[in-house]
């Protein structure tokens, strides 16, 4: 249906009589009939051109024999869930074999004494020909497609040892040696299931044996320790509630305070989404480290852990510690959660960090932890800080009497290793069961990347930016060129735009491999190990998220349909709107994105006021129910520049043997039907048709992520492209001996190939339907159309089908300047934006093309800018309830040519007063989301109309021509200022000079004592330097060349222009953003006028352009608005009273389902006597006294 939308609005802005008398004349300058003619001519010519270059009618006829049937969403969900279950069962079986082998091998070889042993170390592993480091070994490493083209050796495993672990210690060498026997199991597992990813065994002593062997990436500092990864932590012990108590009394200064911070940070690194935690610092009074986390335990997700670490930076020591009050508060909080069945509902622990306790507080433990003689609900772990502390009896007793562990700490270097001792203690009940090995699945995470790297990488990037600014200044200083305010603004805008860049196809995104892992604990099964309850480690394997996505049969879900997986916490494991990366860096809380934060209900609620129906839906999903529901939703797309709304049908079911639930989402109407259009290969050969002829030439591509047919062993069958692989199987499937398997996914030895018969045969049908597209001769009997095509600069015509096939034709007459061909950029068929928009546009106007131009990037207009037009082909168009989008055709042409056509059409008219060529009118062509396709000024191309004509855009919204859609982005990243620009500006006082002299004196004394082997001063430098003194987030380039200048060589760093050159240091933090996006309302088929009582007139006309998604807007420029308004689509932060993490806690967390496994006690644990390390007191009292004196004198100043 072609309908007219006309809006004529007259606004009077001045009270002068002369202005009022001019109203009528100004109104006549815009002729409604003229605008209608312009729009009709522009739309008609573009439609004729599109029909001609795309041959859409011929494509339509090719699908007449296709059969449409109704989809059963529940059946699709069950089939996908079953496929994922079959795949995950194979991974679980592989891990069980690793676990069994490790336990058996350890029993037979644990008593062996090993003092020397050579092994393959991932850090020193080198390919033949590369220089070897000390202790390094050579190994042939071959890039393997299955392992992301990383050079590996599938005949060996290799060992990674953390930086803080000494790899030549006898116990480490012994474990490394016996674990080498796992090689045989690794290789056998990979042969049985070639879809297996990395396999590994993480030892409780710190090393990790990984298969296949690879060279460890050393792009930055190696922070990796398998014992802090979620797959290890969650398998080693059941979920836990934890309260961390940090002594903040006056004695906890200098190095002690730094060690305490480090202890807390390392404890937090061992917690995961199934754990709950809070931190109290205490002296005479008790305070939460994060004030808004008052009297609660919060989930230990990345966002909350980040809040805790930030809060630990603000510790201030003072007065005397009140241990009684803080212990009672911790026990009462844990008791409350235990009785109300909140939190983890399993293990509970108190972690006490102090430099000494005056008593053992036995009465408190008796009242709160020993009431029930059969159960001790809370474990107590104590961390005693300070080498000079000689009386450890009380603090050690507190741990030993409460099923905990005592650790003395005196240096920062030993903190991580000592903190990790609590994990095998928490695992004792699990180990003592011996037979029960809980299966653990992790949330999504990014391979070997440590979350702590986010801040470091961001600081590194800002340092590079600062360095660049300095270098530009030094290069231009002789020309006296400083950075202007405008330049600062430009760079700020670019920084914000980069921050919002979430393109998942970018190179930055691809360097992170998102995984989930399945793991199991490995126990020491020796009979004499009962009194130790030794956890040998954890066995596991990775399951790449992309492997799960490949099982979601996207071709069955169809365009704009999708499937996703949710964890027991309600968090996303995989979802098309999961955006974990910004500017090549992992987002601070990338793996705790909730389902409710991506499925946005179309209502008027405020941020995080989730719709009750959505909450009910989410509750069913996390409880792994089976069912279906329907929601009216709004959604964003095209890099969050566009928005729309629709009705979606959801079908969900649990995935057995995992904590995951699968959800299938189908759009209304076309999403509920599918098409059966397949071509049997053998029948074609019997009829004398060679199906290979449908796929000749190089102007076609298939979807690179879909599995048509493939070999299980990728490394044994290398193909240069997906198209070459398809051609190979096209020949094989034509063989009379070929048999299609009844199952879509199988593994050896049942079969060496994996094929999707339905998808494969559908692709062949589409190949026949479009076979002549790339070699068409468009010149026959249509010279006028061909001339118009050349005049408009059409460069490409293309077609994409529902089976993932994309063909294109490079039209003659225009030079193709792109290095990459169309199919190399746009090869994802139904996943392309132009495909999705064309299908949606069909329900607005069947006979129409969707036009789009690149968004304005702030870099100015380019002469080679292309316009993309696309149109959806539906089968069974005569049956509205059964029609289905089988293909999309389209073309690309030069924007300069469209601009010339627009100017030519709108510069002429009959019996009209003004045209768009005059200064009296401004004319624009907008798309259905309000972006400028064409205007008289080329620099407006791709801009949002509200930024150019804000007043007019606002009036169109008020008159319901465009609808404002408010969209929330719950995965945004904001940048908080660190508050310090540079470490140079500080006030020089006599105290500073005295401090420097004292530090010089002490430094020399310390060096002298170190030469005398007084070990206690080994880390004394920390006693007179605090974090704020040397690390304020700033950076001065060390390799910058300073050019002396008579005027500036003596300039202080705080004086201009250096202060202007300093950037504001920021740190990325998770936050919520909101933005207003717009959508054209096509149901306003009306004409109306609106007049004010006084003022001058500024009418405008809006006319729908037929056969398109565009409108023509003509604005009278008689007089400007008194206040020029701009509408922005840029996201703005949603402000809460507290931080986002605090707001989420206090507004009521969304419910979660606890893990099924909880093993927190065992009767034999009482027999274990090991509960901590002893201490050593130096023979000489002099070093101890000296350490104490220096720490007291210098530490108090910080």
TrEMBL record:
What Gene3D superfamilies does UniProt report for this protein, alphabetically?
Answer: PAS domain, von Willebrand factor, type A domain
Q: In the record, which residues are listed under signal peptide?
A: 1-21
Q: Name its cellular compartments.
A: Membrane
Q: Which SUPFAM superfamilies match?
A: vWA-like (SSF53300)
Q: What CDD domains does the record tag this protein with?
A: PDC2_HK_sensor, vWA_VGCC_like
Its membrane topology is listed as: Single-pass type I membrane protein
Which SMART domains does the record cross-reference, listed alphabetically? VWA (SM00327)
Q: Which GO molecular function terms does the record list?
A: metal ion binding; voltage-gated calcium channel activity
Q: Where is the VWFA domain?
A: 241-423
- Keywords in alphabetical order, please: Calcium, Calcium channel, Calcium transport, Disulfide bond, Glycoprotein, Ion channel, Ion transport, Membrane, Metal-binding, Signal, Transmembrane, Transmembrane helix, Transport, Voltage-gated channel
Pfam family of this protein, just one?
A: VGCC_alpha2
Give a Gene Ontology cellular component term annotated to this protein. voltage-gated calcium channel complex
Tell me where it mainly resides: membrane
Q: Which domain of life is it from?
A: Eukaryota
Q: Which PANTHER family match?
A: STRAIGHTJACKET, ISOFORM C, VOLTAGE-DEPENDENT CALCIUM CHANNEL SUBUNIT ALPHA-2/DELTA-RELATED
Identification of the protein by name: Voltage-dependent calcium channel subunit alpha-2/delta-3
In the UniProt record, the gene name given for this protein reads: Cacna2d3_1
